[in-house]
Amino acid sequence: MSDIKVKICGLSTEETMEAALDAGADMVGLMFFPKSPRHVSLTEACKLADMARGRAEIVAVTVNMDLDGLSRIKELVGPDTFQFHGSETPESLAAAKVMHGTKVMKAISISEKADLEQAHYYAIVADRILFDAKPPKDSVLPGGNGVSFDWTVLKDLDLPKPFMLSGGLKMDNVAEAIRLSGAREIDLSSGVEREKGVKDPDLIRAFMAAVKGAEVAAVKE
Ligand SMILES: O=C(O)c1ccccc1N[C@@H]1O[C@H](COP(=O)(O)O)[C@@H](O)[C@H]1O
Question: What superkingdom heads the lineage (predicted)?
Fold first, then answer.
C-alpha cells in the first residue's frame, strides 16, 4: 500500500488551508452548505481556492444545490470537482458535468452493505464515489458528523470508478480504516478539528503523518 490520496474537507481559514496544502493534502474541500459550521462565503471561497490552485484538487461540496448556485460557484471559485452530498440523481450529476466541465463526485450514505448497491448506478456518470456514514437521526448535516460505518463492507468492492472513504476518520483510526476497507483514498473533516467547525493546523499535520505511517507499515507487511 502506498500513495493514499487524502482530501481534507471544510477548510475555512487561510491558516488551515496552508497547513493542509503544506502537509501534502491531495484534495481540499470548500463547504457551500449554509447549515454547516464549515460553510464559506463565495468571497472567502475564492481566496482559499486561489491558494490551492495548482497545489491540490479543489472540491466544492454542495447539498441539493440548484443549477444557478452551481454556476455561481463554478464562475467565481473555479473548483475542479463538485461533490454532491444530498439526494441528487445520476441525471443531475450528468447535467452538472456537461454544463460546468468539472469532475463530479457523489456521496453515498452507508449503514449496511446493501447501501453500496446504489454506487453502481452513480458510478456510470460520477468520476468518483464517496462513501460516508449515514448521519445520526437528529443531525441537520448529511455529512461532517464525525461518525463511522463498518469499514469491512468496502473490502473487495468492485466499482469501475475510484472511491473515497469518509466518516469519523482521525489520526487514531485511519490506519485501521485503510486496512479494513482497502480504500486508497480518504476524506475527513471533524477529525482534524479542535471544536465543531474549527480546524486545527497541528491536527492536520498529525493526521497526514499518521497516513504516511500507515503507508510505511503496510509496505513492511
Ligand atoms: O462537513 C460538513 O459540515 C458537511 C456538510 C454537508 C455535507 C457534507 C459535509 N461533510 C462531508 O462529510 C465527510 C465526513 O465528515 P467527518 O470526517 O465525519 O466529519 C467530510 O469529509 C465531508 O466530505
Answer: Bacteria
Determine the residue of 26, 87, 166 to mutate for testing ligand 1's pocket, defined as the one with the most ligand atoms within 8 A of the Cβ atom.
166
HSE-up (13 A, CA, CB side) for residue 146: 10
- Quote ipTM for the complex: 0.98
Q: Which residues contact 67 (CB under 8 A, 6 or more apart)?
A: 95, 96, 99
Q: Please, which residues have CB within 8 angstroms of residue 191's CB and are 6 or more apart in sequence?
A: 146, 168, 169, 170, 171, 174, 203, 207
CB proximity list for 35: less than 8 A, separation 6 or greater: 140, 141
Q: What is the pLDDT of residues 48-94, one digit of tens each?
A: 999 999 999 999 999 999 999 999 999 999 999 999 999 999 999 99
For residue 216, what are the domain limits?
A: 5-220
Q: Is the pTM of this model over 0.90?
A: yes
> CA 36, CA 20: separation in Å to the nearest integer?
20
Domain count, the chain: 1
Can you tell me the distance from the alpha carbon of 20 to that of 16, in angstroms, rounded to the nearest whole number? Answer: 6
Say how many Å lie between the CA of residue 137 and the centre of ligand 1: 15
pLDDT in tens, 130-141: 999 999 999 999
Residues 6 or more apart whose Cβ sits within 8 Å of residue 51: 14, 17, 18, 21
The CATH number of whichever domain residue 69 belongs to comes to 3.20.20.70
Contacts of 69 (CB under 8 A, 6+ apart): 32, 62
| Rounded CA separation 196/219 (Å) | 35
